[in-house]
Model the fold of this input.
Amino acid sequence: MRALITGGGGFLGRRLAEMLGASGAEVRVLGRQPYPDLVRQGVDCRQGDVCDLAACQRACADRDVVFHAAAMAGVWGPRRRFLETNVKGTANILRACLENKVGALVYTSSPSVVIGSADIAGGDESLPYPAHYLAAYPESKAVAERMVLAADGWEMVPNEPAAYGLNHGENDVRHLRTCALRPHLIWGPGDQHLLPRIVRAARTGHLARIGRGNPRVDITYIDNAAQAHLLAARDLAGPARSGGKAYFIGDDEPVVLWDWINTVLARLELPPVQRRLPLWLARGLAVSLEALHTAIPALGEPRLTRFTVAQLGQSHWFSHRRAADDLGYHALVGPAEGLDRLIARLRSEAAPRGGLPKIP
Done:
């Protein structure tokens, strides 16, 4: 397999590169920074941005499969930047795949494309896209996901999606098979975003349990997320049961969110989160803070947003039945084992400094 990973320097991209390399695949990554550690592992690293069509075209040359994991993520920021990276960047990758006759495209989407203001308990892929989104990130990911799924089976760059920046090309003549994966809250050794953000908030006293309940949520250990991508690529190259479909991906069972967060904090020798914020108050504060920070951009990211409230105060877990049936997916690592691996990594990194394990 000759594979390209966009966003290859990120958390998921790096693990994908490692697992693909271990399987004997020829791996190339496209990222905005140089990655000397990946080069030392034999990875062909190409520096570039998915917003640059020419860079995408060069990176997709002679590839059998593309894993499109590059994205702008976050709970706050200018909407145009999310659309530029996540929508235009995906359009560029689609066009580059077609022009280079790439056979398969696995798109890293997000469950947030179906999350609104209500709890989701065991939802499946029949869940609709909401009419309105709480942030620009899920909105842009939903637009990109729909583009990717609609592109399944294309033989040439069509005229119809001109709004997405795609133009007709007479010489593009091979089927492109596509699917989208929706891993929820990827975590584990090497995570620089999810757990570090939670731990920093806990250390500074800015973390509060939102709502009266203890919501259940899906989390996805990094190896499980990467394995799902490999299974999807294998399927698209064969029977293509996944062609044109989206899949929820996660660990086998959801966790009780605040119990899990407090377990992580305890393993890091930090006190549990006990402060509570009523859901109605959290939503009201988020709306007010968003208005203030929109009016005064210099304030930066609000401490609380509507999207954050939904993530921390509502249940959102999903059925993985379709992924099991079509891809043969099941979690390789459960939350307890994953946490043991994470703490072991942190301890090994802290040992030379003689300190306790820390998340930055």
Observations:
- Residues 160-173 have pLDDT under 50 and may be disordered.
- The longest strand covers residues 177-183.
- Residues 2-186+219-252+317-332 form a domain with the Rossmann fold fold (CATH 3.40.50.720).
